Amino acid sequence: MKTDAQLAQDVTDELEWEPALQAGPIRVQARAGVVTLSGELPNPAERWIAERAARRVAGVQQLALALTVRPPASGPRADSDIAHDARNVLAWLVGPPVPTVQVAVLRGCITLGGQVAWPWQKPVILDAMRLLPGVQGLTDAMRVLPGPPLSAPPPPDSRPIEAALRRRIASGPLRVLVEGSGVTLCGQIRTPAERALAHHAAWGTPGVRAVHDRLQLIG
Fold first, then answer.
1. Over pLDDT 70: what percentage of the chain?
2. Where do the CATH 3.30.1340.30 domains begin and end in the chain?
3. Is 63 exposed, middle or buried (0-12, 13-18, 19+ CB in 10 A)?
4. What is the β-pairing status of strands 109-116 and 137-144?
5. What interhelical angle do 158-168 and 192-203 show, nearest 10?
6. Would you place residue 24 in the very low, low, confident or very high pLDDT band (cuts 50, 70, 90)?
7. Domain boundaries for CATH 3.30.70 within the chain
8. Arithmetic mean of pLDDT, 102-106
9. φ/ψ bin of 207: left (φ > 0), alpha (ψ from -120 to 50), beta (otherwise)
10. Which CATH architecture is the domain 158-217 placed in?
11. Which of 97, 124, 207, 214 could form a disulfide with 20 if both were Cys (CB 3.0 to 4.6 A apart)?
């Protein structure tokens, strides 16, 4: 069983690992399996992402949220303001250059078009956009580039994936094999939920373009 300090550190590491979250302002405390997150975040999207990331960590029995969101300006938001925020989020999540992803906003509904370089970027972008203040709807028309991007990141490193798996899955150690931009997951899991957590850890790592599943469900 993890100590309070180990659990708090695992949650902190998971928050820092989450690509869609700036974990700096978030404080983590743990006591007897109860984890408390506190701090101020710029929008509801980050609050939701932080909650989801903390719940992924093995050993978290209950989660107490003391996270506050900076209050938005009163009244409905203009489409131009939502579009401005969306482009800022894209610049932060994807990094320059961002022109490959287009943003259109009509009556509070965001449509995302264009291309992203890596499969993991799509769910990260959608998660962050969905809860931007004033957003009434979201349409995903983004495609993943079929080939490597012009400035391809280095091949994925198995160590952060293995660390994420240790934080999340209590069944036992899983092995991660990397070949090029592909990742193979090996080992034994007890539930389909653990399989989903393992896949999320692999896809959430920059540089991964394919995930191969060799996990055995031992139930």
1. 88
2. 4-69, 79-144
3. middle
4. parallel
5. 150
6. low
7. 158-217
8. 94
9. left
10. 2-Layer Sandwich (3.30)
11. 124
- Interatomic CA distance for residues 173 and 191, integer angstroms: 15
pLDDT at 116: 85
The class of domain 4-69 in CATH terms is alpha beta
Angstrom distances, CA of residue 217 to CA of 191, 196, 200, 202:
7, 12, 17, 18
Residue 184 parent element (H or E): strand 182-189
In the numeric block, the tokens 């180990």 are attached to 6
Q: What are phi and psi of 126, to 5 degrees?
A: -65, -40
By the 8 A CB rule, do 18 and 92 touch? no
Comparing 1-10, 147-156, 192-201, the range with the smallest average pLDDT is 147-156
Global pTM value: 0.56
Q: Which residues 6+ apart lie within 8 Å of 17 measured at CB?
A: 53, 160, 163, 164, 204
Give the pairing type, strands 34-41 and 175-179: unpaired
pLDDT digits (tens, 9 = 90+) for 29-67: 999 999 999 998 877 777 878 888 898 898 899 999 998
pLDDT of residue 151: 57
Mean pLDDT of 175-184: 91
Whose tokens are 């974990």? That residue is 23
**79-144 CATH choice from 3.20.20.80, 3.30.1340.30, 2.60.34.10, 1.10.10.10:** 3.30.1340.30
